């Protein structure tokens, strides 16, 4: 039809080309069904209240007002906040160190090491948490055996004061390899000429690392950090699995995600849980966006 | 769903409404006869006609009883589905009912969860189907735990009167001749064990197990939870409640008991290698310990749980469950027929006892053959006699909250953290109580 009518009545502007839409449509469909619809549903749900006596009723923004002052929710937020500030730099730092070491080509058994460090990422986080749970055991676990063998009295990693670092250790173990791979891939993409030029200027390996490699790594570092920030806010599997071993140390509101889960599945409060999840999502977006602005500003200097 | 059921049972409840006060619901032995006559014909017809039933339970103790039922009723096909353990199953059940899909016909319901499920209209009253008249076939305490308000929402199946499993070898090594009969003696035994065997403790106390502490409080005479219709009381400040909590705080702070979670791999190993000398728990645990710690055959014995007053033994229950017909079942009449046969037919009950279930039915508790059974695992002890006595001593008046599933889930947050850090259990319990009161108010209860 278009072919017939077009030459007959030429328009001033060329007809809109819908070909692009056809290519994007599958994504849009999945995005709509998988992301937009659940978000809309959860946001809608969050405006209601569920009661064992009284059923469901519309409460407007009351759930959000409650969440803003809910000590359990705020407790979880501040805990993952601390976790993020401490664990993410350590993990990214380690990943960077390993990536630089591997890239320098001075490490023996490079392939083996690369694979070995990446391997934990292939272990499902639930399995990893279970495994570390055994290691942390102060009776029959590694900690218990160390204490028995050396006469030390190492504190239980699952006690209230040590459980957060213990979880940080599990998460670091799981994700150092993944971040290392992102950074290592970025390093391999640095053009050889830059290194040659640096060598002609008389730079050693360390000077090359600081002046050539690190600047080239910035975008990759940013990606790795962004994923880790989001991951920290989403913390769930590790503490949830360890909770069985340490119910007195890991509360039901230990992380915001655990709290949302608890509200939805044990506390009969799906609607309030939806509000908590929406707030958590917003906080994550704000923190990630702020981090991005900070790096962007640095880069423009 | 509610409508169709009401329509089906229009006649009998109509009369009930008119009479209102008495004789309805089959609370009395002969109270339900009027309606039971009508409905038993309906149930019989459903059993004749046959059909398919789905039964949710995570326990493996019921397979042979279900097979026995199917042999007797070849036209009825019963599928057992494991929909998760305890709280997981209740969540799944609620989801199924609210979505209206994959609703099971029957489900195993623990006593602590019954009020919550009954209140949220997930279970069908057995009184409406004339099964209320079966009350006398079960122990009084178990029947009461299957009722909410004055209505029974299922038939009791198994109970967990509190008993103490102890490791005879550890007691011998520590030089303890008799298992402690009172909590005072228990504390002394705890000291002896720690002195004689520095790596062993008398027991662990689980910072995550609300049911465990609940039953100890129950046994000590405390009644922190009460409900009547929509009004609820949560009070942990009672003298008897505090007595139990302070007792355990004392043992924990003196390092006489291990504040460790139960049921973990590490915990089973501690129990197996004698690091833990006793386990005070429900009678159902005999089956669990003998099938888990197979290398320890002959080590353990069963004793009554320690008492607060040896002259006036008051016991409690830990766990226990019944079976209920689920609201929204495709064939409620058939499900009721199954429930009755499964709960009381001799072949079915025998199969359940063989699988290690501790009965809520009164008949086996008086059956000499069952009572005299010698347990090889427990050194040839006639353990059922101890259990039956323990069952007979269960004290009355205990209630769970109509939101006990939630209550148990947040136990670790307040009480658990006190237990695992050696703090004051009583403080934790009072904090727990505060949280439960404010939750009750949020949920629309009248909290006193």
From TrEMBL, chain A:
The chain crosses the membrane at residues 21-41, 80-103, 115-135, 162-187, 216-236, 270-291. GO terms for biological process: transmembrane transport. Gene3D superfamilies: MetI-like (1.10.3720.10). Pfam families: BPD_transp_1. InterPro entries: MetI-like, MetI-like_sf, UgpAE/MalFG_permease. It is found in: Cell membrane. Residues 77-291 form the ABC transmembrane type-1 domain. It comes from Streptomonospora alba. It is a multi-pass membrane protein. GO terms for cellular component: plasma membrane. Belongs to the binding-protein-dependent transport system permease family. This is Sugar ABC transporter permease. Keywords: Cell membrane, Membrane, Transmembrane, Transmembrane helix, Transport. Its main location: membrane.
TrEMBL record, chain B:
It holds the Pfam family SBP_bac_1. Transmembrane segments: none annotated. SUPFAM superfamilies: Periplasmic binding protein-like II (SSF53850). InterPro entries: Bact_solute-bd_prot1 (IPR050490), SBP (IPR006059). Keywords: Signal. Gene3D superfamilies: Periplasmic binding protein-like II. Residues 1-18 form the signal peptide. PANTHER family: ARABINOSE-BINDING PROTEIN-RELATED (PTHR43649), BLR3389 PROTEIN (PTHR43649:SF14). This is Sugar ABC transporter substrate-binding protein. It comes from Streptomonospora alba.
């Amino acid at each position: 039809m278009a072919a017939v009518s077009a030459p007959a009545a030429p328009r001033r502007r060329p007809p809109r080309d819908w070909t692009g839409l056809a290519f994007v449509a599958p994504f849009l469909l999945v995005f709509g069904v998988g992301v937009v619809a659940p978000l809309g549903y959860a946001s809608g749900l969050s405006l209601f209240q569920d009661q064992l006596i009284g059923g469901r009723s519309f409460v407007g923004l009351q759930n959000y007002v409650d969440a803003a002052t809910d000590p359990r929710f705020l407790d979880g937020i501040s805990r993952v906040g601390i976790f993020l500030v401490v664990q993410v730099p350590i993990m990214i730092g380690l990943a960077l160190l390993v990536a630089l070491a591997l890239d320098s080509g001075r490490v023996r058994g490079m392939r083996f090491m690369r694979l070995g460090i990446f391997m934990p990422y292939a272990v499902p986080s639930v399995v990893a948490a279970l495994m570390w749970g055994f290691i942390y055991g102060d009776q029959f676990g590694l900690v218990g055996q160390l204490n028995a063998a050396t006469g030390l009295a190492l504190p239980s990693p699952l006690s209230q004061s040590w459980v957060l670092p213990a979880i940080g250790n599990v998460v670091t173990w799981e994700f150092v390899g993944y971040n290392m791979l992102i950074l290592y891939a970025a390093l391999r993409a640095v053009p050889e000429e830059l290194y040659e030029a640096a060598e002609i200027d008389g730079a050693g390996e360390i000077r090359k690392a600081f002046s050539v490699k690190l600047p080239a790594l910035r975008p990759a570092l940013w990606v790795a950090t962004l994923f880790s920030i989001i991951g920290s806010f989403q913390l769930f599997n590790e503490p949830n699995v360890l909770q069985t071993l340490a119910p007195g140390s890991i509360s039901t509101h230990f992380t915001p995600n655990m709290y949302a889960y608890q509200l939805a599945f044990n506390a009969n409060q799906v609607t309030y849980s939806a509000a908590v999840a929406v707030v958590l999502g917003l906080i994550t977006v704000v923190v990630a966006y702020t981090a991005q602005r900070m790096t962007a500003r640095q880069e423009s200097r | 769903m509610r409508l169709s059921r009401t329509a089906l049972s229009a006649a009998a409840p109509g009369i009930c409404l008119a009479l209102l006060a008495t004789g309805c619901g089959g609370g009395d032995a002969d109270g339900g006869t009027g309606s039971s006559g009508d409905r038993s014909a309906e149930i019989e017809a459903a059993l004749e006609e046959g059909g398919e039933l789905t039964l949710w339970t995570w326990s493996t103790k019921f397979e042979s009883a279900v097979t026995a039922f199917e042999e007797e009723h070849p036209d009825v096909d019963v599928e057992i589905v494991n929909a998760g353990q305890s709280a997981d199953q209740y969540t799944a059940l609620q989801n199924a009912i609210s979505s209206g899909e994959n609703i099971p016909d029957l489900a195993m319901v623990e006593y602590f969860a019954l009020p919550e499920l009954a209140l949220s209209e997930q279970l069908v009253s057995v009184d409406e189907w004339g099964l209320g008249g079966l009350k006398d076939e079960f122990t009084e305490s178990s029947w009461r735990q299957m009722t909410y308000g004055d209505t029974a929402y299922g038939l009791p199946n198994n109970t967990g009167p509190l008993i103490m499993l102890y490791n005879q070898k550890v007691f011998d090594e520590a030089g303890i001749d008799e298992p402690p009969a009172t909590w005072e003696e228990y504390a002394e035994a705890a000291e002896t064990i720690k002195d004689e065997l520095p790596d062993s403790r008398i027991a662990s106390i689980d910072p995550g197990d609300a049911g465990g502490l609940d039953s100890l409080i129950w046994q000590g005479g405390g009644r922190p939870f009460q409900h009547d219709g929509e009004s609820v009381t949560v009070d942990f400040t009672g003298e008897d409640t505090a007595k139990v909590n302070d007792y355990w705080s004392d043992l924990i702070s003196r390092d006489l008991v291990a504040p460790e979670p139960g049921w973990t791999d590490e915990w089973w190993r501690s129990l197996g290698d004698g690091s833990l000398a006793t386990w005070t728990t429900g009678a159902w645990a005999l089956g669990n310990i003998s099938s888990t710690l197979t290398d320890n055959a002959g080590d353990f014995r069963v004793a009554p749980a320690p008492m607060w007053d040896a002259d006036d033994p008051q016991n409690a229950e830990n766990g226990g469950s019944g079976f209920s017909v689920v609201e929204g079942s495709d064939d409620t009449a058939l499900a009721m027929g199954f429930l009755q046969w499964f709960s009381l037919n001799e072949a079915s009950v025998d199969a359940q006892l063989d699988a290690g279930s501790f009965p809520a039915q009164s008949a086996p508790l008086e059956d000499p053959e069952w009572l005299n059974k010698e347990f090889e695992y427990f050194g040839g002890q006639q353990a059922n006699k101890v259990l039956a006595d323990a069952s007979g001593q269960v004290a009355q008046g205990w209630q769970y909250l109509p939101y006990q599933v939630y209550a148990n889930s947040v136990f670790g947050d307040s009480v658990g953290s006190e237990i695992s850090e050696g703090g004051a259990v009583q403080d934790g319990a009072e904090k727990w109580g505060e949280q439960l009161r404010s939750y009750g108010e949020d949920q629309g209860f009248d909290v006193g």
